[in-house]
Known about the structure:
Blueprint: H1 9-17, E1 23-24, E2 36-37, E3 49-50, H2 76-87, H3 91-94, H4 98-103, H5 106-133, H6 140-148, H7 150-181, H8 192-212, H9 214-245, H10 264-277, H11 294-323, H12 326-331, H13 335-343, H14 350-379, E4 389-391, H15 398-410, H16 417-422, H17 427-445, H18 458-477, H19 479-490, H20 492-501, H21 506-523, E5 525-527
Antiparallel strand pairs: 1-2, 2-3, 4-5
Helix pairs in contact: 2-9, 2-11, 2-14, 5-10, 5-11, 5-17, 5-18, 6-7, 6-17, 7-8, 7-14, 7-15, 8-9, 8-14, 8-15, 9-11, 9-14, 14-15, 17-18, 18-19
Amino acid sequence: MAEPELKSRSSRESVAKAASQEKMEAAEAHPDQDGLIADQSASPSSPMVPASAATSPTDGSPAKGEKVVLKRSITLFNGVGMIIGTIIGSGIFVTPTGVVKETGSAGLSLIVWSACGVISTMGALCYAELGTTITKSGGDYTYILEVYGELAAFLKLWVEMLIIRPSSQYVVSLVFATYLLKPLYPNCSVPDSAAKLIACLCLTSLTFVNCISVRAATKVQDLFTASKLVALIIIILFGFIQIGTGDVPYLTLEKSFEGSKMGVDNIVLALYSGLFAFGGWNYLNYVTEEMINPERNLPLSIIISMPIVTVVYVLTNLAYFTTISPEEMVESEAVAVSFGEYHLGVMAWLIPVFVGLSCFGAVNGSLFTSARLFYAGAREGQLPAALGLVHTDLFTPVPSLIFTCLLSMMYAISQDIFSVINLFSFFTWLCVGMAIAGLVWMRLTKPDLRRPIKFPLFIPLTFVLGCVFMIVVSFWAAPFECLVGSSIILTGVPAYLLGYKWKKPHVVKKMLEIFTMFCQKIFMSVPEEREQRVAE
Length: 536
């Protein structure tokens, strides 16, 4: 007897709608594109799909009859690079001060960093099980949709689309621009207009790379992940050299725990800061369908990358403490730059360069996964069908990538983007906690569900409690901001009712179809051709 499998809502709907498919002819058809067929499998308003189209994944030549889908091209190495490159951004170079500010000492700070790495690894292992059980792209969104239903999933999508993804991508690109331009303005601040222009150029160039091919995007990610690891290894090596000299006053047994703040509130806030620094370990789950052999490579990517990030974070902070006191670290605006000026001398300019490269790679990883999130939402019918289109030759979600880029650049008009981001400090932990709680629920209600890997139940239970802790701390530390953020989240309810549940009049449907058709023509993209299976 076959083991039960999870069915997507879009797959079930597409079977019922198969009878309503319409044939449409192109105004000027190429001999290899002699017919366009309407297909509503991606969403209710998808007007057409090519009968044949495409490019061979092996030699790039047209292959008539090949399915237009997002190809499986992400290897184990790419997966490791994506996780490491997304977690390690500019924070470890610029302001790794949140933990030491609350702990007060080098020794306790290193213990907290280690604990945060272990906790984050537990969460990542839970996502390895989720990603091999629910084998669809979309990450948290897909898991919440499967377990909690359409409204909860739409609210997740709503906030990610309007606030979290575009704002964070713009902020990191702005940091990249600032470090890139700083040598031109050594004695003053970088002008806002110049930084914003370079930030937008960063976003558009990376969007172009992601549109061209998945392989190009993953190569960029691998390259810049390697560069940031090289930078951190340089810092770590100089730290060990300093330890070898014996001149490490802040790491001696007498002083390493001197000034430690052992209050519950201090430890709680230190853990809160550390866990945020590990954010991004769940991003590979957004591209599960594009991984080669995900049942093997998804768990291995997580198992390889999380210990690497934890060790690098702990050793980098250890290196900082060989030279910089906890008090100086709290006051420093760029810890790695201060460290580089002490050890590298005339070569200290390398550190700002590596910070910029690190930010560039982080933006690339975020753009790559954000586009897949919106693509998954369109495929489920919760976003416009145009975002669920795939380029017929490049096999990339071009409309979704361009949409992600435009949303991010819109934040260039904001004068205080960080205040917007702070409103949703709890939201990520809420969604991750819901997804892993869903894992526990499926263990209890669907014990026969196929699970290629399965971890002890105490791991997801412990992490869910950790997510509850993070949410409570968020409301305790910034109650007003979290309440405002919750109110903004609830604005998604009328958007859900009007944009998704509302039975649209014929004229609205027609306008959506015309818009989707326009996007198909201008972006040379069509809805993904998926296997249709009727539930037994």
